[in-house]
Amino acid sequence: MKTFRIAIAGFGGVGRATARLLLSRRARYRQVYNADVRLVAVCGSRSGLASTDGLEEEQLTTLQEGLSGPAFIDESRADVLIEAGPTDFRSGGPGLAYLRSALSVGRDTVVISKGALVHSGRELRRLAQGSGALLKLSGAAAAALPTVDLVQHSLKGCEVLSVEGILNATTNYLLDAMITRGIGFDEALREAQAGGFAEADPRNDTEGWDTACKLLILANFGLGADLDMDDLRVEGIQSVTAERIAFWRGQGLVPKLVGSLSHVDDTFRAEVGIRTYPLADPFANIRGKDKAIRIVTDAMGETIAIGAGKEPLATAAAALKDLEHILETRLAVPR
Ligand SMILES: NC(=O)c1ccc[n+]([C@@H]2O[C@H](COP(=O)([O-])OP(=O)(O)OC[C@H]3O[C@@H](n4cnc5c(N)ncnc54)[C@H](OP(=O)(O)O)[C@@H]3O)[C@@H](O)[C@H]2O)c1
Questions:
Q1: Where's the Homoserine dehydrogenase catalytic domain (predicted)?
Q2: Which residue of 81, 146, 284, 317 is most buried, as measured by CB atoms within 10 A?
Q3: Residue 335: pLDDT over 80
Q4: Measured between alpha carbons, how far is residue 140 from residues 2, 90, 263, 298, 318 in Å?
Q5: Is the pLDDT assigned to residue 96 strictly greater than 90?
Q6: Residue of minimum CA distance from atom 30 in ligand 1
Q7: Residue 243's CB: how many other CB atoms inside 10 A?
Q8: Distance 95 CA to ligand 1 centre (A)
Q9: Domain 148-307 in CATH: superfamily?
């Protein structure tokens, strides 16, 4: 039985959910892959824990000060890093140092935060290619909604002509509440904040940046584009008024914040903004915190996927789907 050592950097809601799910699936990994999967290190910004024999869930409640950082992960001799730190696409965030360190030594990596992939995606792809490390990022590209996997596996071989995605749960919740219940933006936002799924500072979601990050990651890592954030036109929902909502309702239209890609001259034009859909369109019926993607290809026509997973479990499961892809690859083609 082959041993796979896993480390998790970033141990908040998603990192902890990923650790719990990983530990609960160890019997599956033994049965399906004949693999002894061990959680050998976890860390937050200032503290962590490590054990070469593998950590158990009850040990994860108390972390030790000082055990953190890329060098700490390196010392754990993990085969796979799962990175779940905060997202900051303007600087790359703390994830960037972890990813540089892991990918440059050939450590397979599952990325959940978006910042480093948006800020330094080109460099990270080069590092992975150079060292032979696998770089997986479902958790950063709308997580439980399949996006990159859809184009790379289900639609393999087809030319993608266009993509439309409702990629941000918070903005979908807000627009849905405004159009179906007639409440204003501020009231809908207060509801979402009270429900714990909108940040105290919601601008990353409401101004369209979270959607833009996911779209850019899908374009660059899934479709071979080479876009920077400056290439995207990004519009949010913060200025949607009661009058515009009333107008759309009168017309039988449903507004959605959509990230879109269209194939133009061998590359993709990318933008984020409000699109409206007639009631018969599946996108008009994506409710609450659900997400959706519609991809049009040359040979398979139109494909739509809808995701309604509960967070943070769904994101943890998306990251562990990536881990299983890594196990499959490494067991088929050992290093
Ligand atoms: N929440 C979701 O449903 C969801 C869905 C998809 C993707 N994501 C992405 O997943 C990531 C994590 O989200 P979350 O909700 O778990 O956030 P969170 O609860 O704020 O957790 C972030 C974690 O990152 C740690 N961290 C900060 N700086 C670090 C450093 N230098 N080294 C190591 N760890 C560091 C924090 O440590 P301390 O505890 O020490 O501060 C904390 O444990 C984000 O990038 C988010 O965009 C989240």
A1: 146-323
A2: 81
A3: no
A4: 28, 16, 23, 27, 9
A5: yes
A6: 45
A7: 8
A8: 9
A9: Dihydrodipicolinate Reductase; domain 2 (3.30.360.10)
